# Entry
Amino acid sequence: MTERIIIRTGRVIDSATKFDAIADVLVEDGRIAAIGAGLVADSAREIDARGLVVAPGFVDVHTHLRDPGLEYKEDIASGTRAAARGGFTTVCAMPNTEPAMDNRSVVEYVLREAAARARVRVLPIGAVSKGRAGKELAELGDLAAAGCIAFSDDGAPVWDATLMRRALEYASIFDLPIIDHCEDRSLAKDAVMHEGWVSTRLGLRGAPAAAEEAAVSRDIALAETAGAHVHIAHVSTRAAVDAVRRAKARGVRVTAEATPHHLTLTHEIVAFGALGGEELAYDTNAKVNPPLRSQDDVDACVAGLADGTIDCIATDHAPHAVIEKLCEFDEAAFGISGLETAFGLCMRLVNEGRIELPTLIARLTVGPVCALGLDRYVPGIGTLAVSAPADIVLLDPSAEWVVEPERFASKGKNTPLGGVTLKGLVVATIAQGRVVHESGVPVA
Ligand code: DOR
# Structure
């Protein structure tokens, strides 16, 4: 049994039901029991949400939990603790584990560990190919039966177009999407950052924006041919956003995500750090794949997010050990530990008047749920409808805080945002009726 909780007098924003009003939310038996003004709830724990926003818990369709096999970077307990701190009540676990999640037994392991140790819901994503090697299809039917909600070789593209075509055809039998990491590696060979003036200045090999566009265009053509669903992971370029927009307009089953970092940060960060400075930083914590791009690309991603071309925000939380970043830029691992900064970073877009808060919340809740059809696994997920699971986040959009990576719950301290002040705080997270995070920061 979980506690009875009443969340009083917050601004409740539920994008799925278009609800936006001051109200109380009553939680009973792990579900939303009632929403309305002046609810009576004897013996319930009271949470005062005056001045706060109350929204459905965020859903991340792109999380690297690193478990099994890479627990020195993250494990299911630490990764889901980080998720709770970031306001996420569901995370979809990417399969680039060791071994890869390319067979039923690894999925069973992840679900078992999650049941025993996770703070929030974990939904597994199976690999497209055996060992993520891009040669032979994994047993997608078996993976689907074991509980995978999508397939991806993320970290690597499905570079063989015929394998991708067969994967799309096979996955469509189960009505599941292929999530592709879109990168033409013949164009991006040995690249460590975005190709542009910064890569030239730093003397580092760059990946041209065209490497993403080429892969996205191929995937759209194949999805159209197969009548299948492709989901484009971490869109980062103007051309990719445009390609997705055009494909959606002619009815192709394509959905897309963008990360908080690709929506807010540019390649200049690699050179000068997020706090800016004169000295060249060569900040390995800003090394990520796809790389941080130009301001024009960022603007296009934000426009795509605003108009729905980009269905959802996904963190691509990619935790690494200190040693994997404390080295030469060329040698450093790709990835940003993103769960705990996602909301604060995305709030920049709201604070700068580029998107509305309800739109941001939609892209973190109902957006990912609809993009990947997650409500067939968890009815009511991403909403605050009565009888939906009590996955709830309490947000203070105006609270400022300084990013201190050493205090992350994630084992991955690899963020370029250390020392940066963000405006927008996750005050508390409730997952399936349990309080799984309380910020401890005095609230309004
Ligand atoms: O930067 C990245 N890190 N991009 C990816 O696609 C994979 C990820 C990882 O697993 O570290």
Summary: Residues 403 and 418 are 5 Å apart (CA to CA). The radius of gyration is 21 Å.
